Structures are given as structure tokens and as C-alpha cells.
Amino acid sequence: MSAHCCEHDTPKPETVLNLPRYRKILWIALLVNAGMFLVEIGAGLQAGSLALLADAVDFAGDALNYGVSLAVLASALAWRARAAMLKAASMMGFGLYVLGAALWSLWHGEVPQAFTMGVVAVLALLVNLGVAWMLYAFREGDANMRSVWLCSRNDAIGNVAVLLAALGVFGTGSAWPDLVVASLMAALALHGGWSVLRQARAEIGQARSAEAHHGHVH
């Protein structure tokens, strides 16, 4: 999921001719992911599903990732790293919230609405498959392009997990499948956020060293 979306290299020269189309696709992906974040937040609260809320976190992280990828096309390394740190802080904050909510639900939670979970999970799956299909032509590009395509492809796996959680809730009449999937997705968000944070800090240090060297030369 978003843990796979933390590389932000500058596009290679041979991919520049495709940048207008790539930029357009990234804008579509950003808007669609931001929209699905709002849908899943609302549905997750209404249905009482932490798995949907966790998947909403993933959509928010992806929207930030697409925004960072758009910035990559024109921005310097230090600014890309600062944007990535914002993404990391958001991912880890939401991940902690979902884990805390899961612990609270162990004692006080109710059984979520399996039907709402299933419908929204199918919608989210179709959205991620659509974005992955649009980005398929760029899967062999630079690290940034590859990571963005892998991001959408791997997110579809998360949507399938939410769908399985919905089936588990429906079949067992228990909240346990929802809590398990939510906890796993929150753990992935925390891991991904930490990875992005470490890389961003390294990139900021790299940018400062380059600036210091440049200043020393002059």
C-alpha cells in the first residue's frame, strides 16, 4: 500500500515527452483518491467499520503521494523531502488513530455493517484498478513512475482485504474480522510512514550537503 510509494526520483530524459499525459493522469488519480478518502471516512463512521477508516487513511496517503509526485516534476530535492515528511506525519498519525480506535473497540465497539463495508470496498477496488490501468503505460519509467503505479496496484490488495473483512463480519456476526484487517492496515501505514520519514530526512541532509559543497566551491 502506501508503504510502497515513498520514492520520488526525477524523471529520466527519455520519459519527458510523456510528462504532459503523466501529469494529467496524476491529477486525476489525486482527485479520485481524495474523493474516495472522504467517501470511506463517511462510510466507515456510518457503518462503524475500522477497516474502512484504515483504507480511507490509505487513500489519503495516496492523494498526498500523487501530490508529491506532481511536485517532483519541477521541484528541488529538499522541497520534495519536506513534502514527503508531511505525508509521513499524516500516515503515522492516522495509523495511530486507527490502532487506538481498534483497541477501544475491543471493549466498547459494535458489530459493523457488513453490507456497507462490502459496497464501499468494491467501489474502492474499482477506483484503484482504474488508476492502475491509467498508470500501466508508465510502469517501466523511472523510480517515481514505477512506485506510483505499484502504489495503485498494491492498494487493490487492501481493498480486497476490506472486502474479506466484510464477508467475515457477515458470516460470523462479529467485529473481529474488521478489527484484524484494520489493525494490519494501520500497522502498514505506520511502517510506511516511518520509511518515508527516514528517506526524507536523508534527502534533506543530502540537499544540505550539496548546498554546502556548492557554496564552498564558489
TrEMBL record:
> Which sequence ranges are marked TM in the entry?
25-43, 63-81, 88-107, 113-136, 156-173, 179-197
SUPFAM superfamilies associated with the record: Cation efflux protein transmembrane domain-like (SSF161111)
Which Gene3D superfamilies has this protein been placed in?
Answer: Cation efflux protein transmembrane domain (1.20.1510.10)
What's the superkingdom here? Bacteria
Sorted keywords for this record are:
Ion transport, Membrane, Transmembrane, Transmembrane helix, Transport, Zinc, Zinc transport
Q: Indicate the segments forming the Cation efflux protein transmembrane domain, all copies.
A: 26-201
- Compartments where located: Membrane
Topology in the lipid bilayer: Multi-pass membrane protein
Name of the featured protein = Cation diffusion facilitator family transporter
Annotated organism of origin: Hydrogenophaga palleronii
Lineage, top ranks: Bacteria, Pseudomonadati, Pseudomonadota, Betaproteobacteria, Burkholderiales
